[in-house]
Design a protein that fits this description.
The protein is an all-alpha fold and 77 residues long. Helix content is 86%, strand content 0%.
Length: 77
């Protein structure tokens, strides 16, 4: 069960990370100046995604990754 917990924890973290990097790449294509600023202001990239209509698709994969991450943490505890 320990191996499954570690796998779920790391895969959930990876899914959330990939979703956030994909969102950053899409924002850089649309608004490179504001996307550069979002590297220094936490959470600003989510606002930019909402303004550009990318938030819905991103949120599904991001929340899925976080749910898998939490499940892995619960299994390991």
């Amino acid at each position: 069960m320990h191996t499954f917990g570690v796998t779920a924890l790391l895969s959930g973290l990876l899914i959330a990370f990939i979703a956030q990097m994909y969102l950053a790449a899409m924002i850089f294509k649309v608004e490179p100046g504001k996307a550069f600023i979002s590297l220094f202001i936490p959470g600003y990239i989510f606002l930019l995604a909402k303004r550009n209509g990318l938030y819905g698709k991103f949120l599904v994969s991001y929340v899925l990754g976080l749910i898998i991450f939490v499940i892995g943490g619960v299994i390991l505890s």
